[in-house]
Specification:
The complex is a heterodimer.
Chain A (H helix, E strand, L loop, with lengths): L2 H11 L1 E5 L3 H12 L5 E6 L14 H4 L18 E4 L3 E5 L4 E4 L4 E3 L2 E4 L3 E3 L5 H4 L4 E2 L4 H12 L5 E4 L3 H12 L4 E5 L6 H18 L3 E4 L3 E6 L5 E6 L4 E3 L2 E4 L3 E3 L11 E2 L2 E3 L5 E3 L5 E7 L4 E5 L5 E5 L2 H15 L14 E6 L2 E7 L6 E8 L4 E8 L2 E8 L5 H9 L21 E2 L14 E4 L1 E2 L4 E2 L7
Parallel strand pairs in A: 1-2, 1-7, 2-3, 7-21, 9-16, 10-11, 10-16, 11-12, 19-22
Antiparallel strand pairs in A: 4-5, 5-6, 8-17, 13-14, 14-15, 18-19, 20-21, 22-23, 23-30, 24-25, 25-28, 26-27, 26-29, 27-28, 31-32
Helix pairs in contact in A: 2-8
Chain B lengths: L1 E4 L9 H5 L4 E4 L3 E4 L8 H10 L5 E4 L7 H6 L4
Antiparallel strand pairs in B: 1-4, 2-3
The chains are: A alpha/beta, B alpha+beta.
Protein name (chain B): Ferredoxin
Cofactor (chain B): [3Fe-4S] cluster
Function (chain B): Ferredoxins are iron-sulfur proteins that transfer electrons in a wide variety of metabolic reactions.
């Protein structure tokens, strides 16, 4: 039978299995059906819930404006899928093309899509993590538990780690009128994602809203009372802090353990794939029947020197899932590269923070519009004399323009004289990203792999 | 009914907050907070908001427009 005939049969009666039933898994399934796949479709998810949206969990849900158990994602079409929810995938046999489930069952596939995402990095001391009052926030069950505890008016909340999630949690706590301490190992909140210049604005924002922000500080221990309830935290400056709630916001760990020994190129930094979302095996050979999308994927990006990007972004999950699904049931000439320009948002302390591009690649930053002091501005990042990223605080309308600048490798610093620029923004300054060899909560964009232009390997350092 | 807003796309025009204030609310100058689960009584307002959004960032699963879509799915959940 010809290759085309095999593809036609796959589209008509093939078996597609998606491991990971969250945003990326759902969107991929919808794309498969939309593009005419009529074979069997199985979605496997370790959580017992239908696919739900996570961004509201650290915002609307903690504020009590939405319910943690009512954030299911809208469905755009019937999927006619077999849902295996509440059972994790436990292994993969690539030769026999089957996924082993935690309950011992096995599911065979012709094409496999892995969208297992990430989970919250737990507090490193298991006994302390068990204390009543110690939380993480990733799943809707996490959010429901934390929301209930915040509603019970704790004396003080300690947020450990001032990345985006930690900062949003601190914001929600302040809005609820709760005393909050934020302990951040780096020099400022968001420093890993946006650098020190913008991080300083985030620090002032937190303090202006009454957060007891402590930077350059690590939490060295959590102490409970005789009943196992969190009582106080020990800090690296030798002080202690009385607190009855601690939220561990130390970034995320990729869900790849179930692939150990499978022969797939999967590890703590995710699963490497090509620009068409096909996974690499451990030999560095691209597979033709295993695809990856969403937070767990690392894929080379043409705009960023073909470096491998791991993006824990909502928009990336949506875009990459659609590309992966299309490519799974297309011939090689019809396949598309994943060329989505990274973008994310965060809502905290009443400010809308949005970004396009990869700020952490930036060497310098210039305030192109607005003013840092007013906390309403657009910062543009430069890398090797080109525009590589932009971030806005309450100036989202500028980002579309900068996205085009990034896509066209526009020169940095910008040559045009921009509107609404203040004297402080006339010159680029070092973006002040932390020494990558020092551990932090981690940037939300990580760059790794090799660049053909300089033949160097740049590894994302191990963290936490 | 279920809904989600693509907040990468959202530019804070606030049309939705005017048209369906029980579901969409501005938070500060340009942040949008919304309830991902709107009551059936809000249906008309939510659909109007989705239609009016200048950047078409609001995605709504309308059970009435696609009869049985969600129920169909649930029958397959094991």
């Amino acid at each position: 039978m010809s290759g085309d005939g095999a593809l036609e049969r796959l589209r008509r009666e093939g078996r597609i299995v998606i491991v990971g039933a969250s945003l990326a898994g759902l969107r991929a399934a919808e794309t498969l059906r939309k593009e005419g796949f009529t074979g069997s479709l199985t979605l496997i998810g370790d959580e017992p819930h239908e696919p739900y949206d996570r961004p509201p969990l650290s915002k609307q849900v903690l504020l009590g404006h939405a319910s943690a158990d009512r954030t299911e994602l809208p469905r755009m079409r019937g999927l006619d899928a077999d849902w295996r929810l509440g059972v994790a995938a436990a292994g993969l046999d690539m030769a026999d093309r089957r996924v082993r489930l935690a309950d011992g069952d096995e599911v065979e596939y012709d094409r496999l899509l892995i969208t297992t995402g990430v989970r919250a990095r737990p507090w490193p001391h298991p006994a302390e993590a068990e204390l009543d009052g110690v939380f993480v926030l990733r799943t809707r069950d996490d959010a429901a538990r934390l929301q209930r505890r915040l509603a019970a008016s704790p004396r003080r909340v300690l947020v450990i780690g001032a990345g985006f999630t930690g900062s949003e949690i601190a914001s929600a706590c302040r809005e609820r009128g709760l005393p909050v301490t934020v302990a951040e190992r780096g020099a400022a909140p968001l420093v890993g994602a946006l650098g020190g210049v913008i991080g300083q604005v985030a620090a002032e924002l937190q303090r202006a809203h009454g957060v007891d922000l402590r930077c350059g500080i690590m939490v060295t221990g959590l102490e409970g009372d005789s009943a196992g309830r969190l009582r106080r935290a020990h800090l690296s400056d030798g002080t202690t802090l009385d607190t009855d709630v601690a939220v561990v916001s130390l970034g995320a760990t990729r869900n790849t353990e179930w692939l150990a020994g499978s022969g797939l190129g999967a590890g703590p930094r995710g699963i490497a794939c090509d620009a068409g979302c096909r996974a690499f095996d451990v030999r560095g050979i691209v597979t033709d029947d295993v695809f990856v999308a969403g937070d767990v994927a690392r894929s080379p990006h043409a705009i960023f020197g073909y470096q491998f990007l791991s993006l824990e972004h909502w928009g990336n999950a949506v875009a990459q899932a659609a590309t992966a699904a299309h490519n799974m049931i297309s011939s090689s000439s019809e396949r598309r590269p994943h060329l989505w320009v990274p973008a994310f948002w965060s809502s905290q302390f009443g400010v809308n923070i949005k970004s396009v591009g990869v700020p952490s690649l930036g060497e310098e930053v210039i305030v192109a519009q607005g003013s840092l002091a007013e906390r309403r501005f657009t910062g543009v990042y430069g890398y090797q004399d080109r525009v590589i990223a932009a971030v806005s605080f309450d100036q989202t309308k500028w980002l579309e323009f900068y996205q085009r600048q990034i896509e066209t490798a526009a020169p940095f610093p910008p040559e045009y004289s921009s509107v609404n620029r203040r004297p402080e923004g006339l010159r680029p300054v070092p973006a002040d990203f932390p020494d990558p060899s020092l551990p932090t909560h981690g940037p939300s964009v990580t760059v790794s792999g090799y660049s053909p232009t300089d033949q160097r390997i740049t590894f994302t350092p191990a963290r936490g | 009914m279920r809904l989600v807003v693509d907040l990468n796309r959202c530019q804070g025009y606030a049309q939705c907050a005017f048209l369906a204030p029980d579901v969409f609310a501005m938070h500060g100058e340009e942040s949008l907070l919304y309830n991902p689960h709107a009551e059936a009584a809000q249906r008309e307002q939510v659909l109007r908001a989705a239609t009016a959004c200048p950047v078409q960032a609001i995605l709504v699963e309308d059970p009435d427009a696609a009869p049985g879509a969600a129920e169909d799915e649930l029958s397959h959940v094991r």
